[in-house]
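Q: Could you fold this chain for me?
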Amino acid sequence: MDKMRKMFGRTTPEEEVKKWTRQLRSEQRKIDMQITRIRREEQKVKMSMKQAAKQNDTVAVKMLAKELVRSRKAVNRMYTAKTQMNSVAMQLQNQLAQAKVAGGLQKSGEIMKEMNALVKVKEVQQTMMEMSKEMAKGGIMEEMMNDTLDAALDDDISDTELEDEVNKVVEEVTQNQMAGAHVGAGKLPQKQQQQVVEEEDDEDEDLMERFNALKS
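A: Sure. Below is the predicted structure, expressed as structure tokens.
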């Protein structure tokens, strides 16, 4: 016991595992709250899309569909993070059981893999980075390289994938109210097409600011 306390400072591996497990559970609860807020906002976006579709406002429908696609991507990302956190928690318990025989926590490739993935999830990034550093000090995983930490941001959806997803969402939410009309500048009067192209990027940024505010 004294040897194990020396390795972890004033705490034992059991105390460290309990602390990490509590942090993981806390982050999972926060994720659940974020998902609930996003789901509520999605319902509002769907209602706005239906209203815009009735008015044949193709630009508004497209922009709202983009917002919905991005929010769904965020929710899927957070559900995946919850699963990865569960995996880490189970691996920590396995490590703790083995520590009683080995005399201390051993390096775990599975924990390293899951933590590498979690530090790239922006919703839990800061907490996971701090936890990773603690785990590295405790000898349970290797210290992450700087390039891994610097790249700890989610890759955005590609333009092609986004366009495909937007069209699917438009059909789903509007129930083909927009059938026969491509969602975008192409179906607007010719004199308005250039203006839509110029304004679209600014509108995307505004929508992303609104969505990010939901998660803060």
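A (continued): The longest helix spans residues 58-102.
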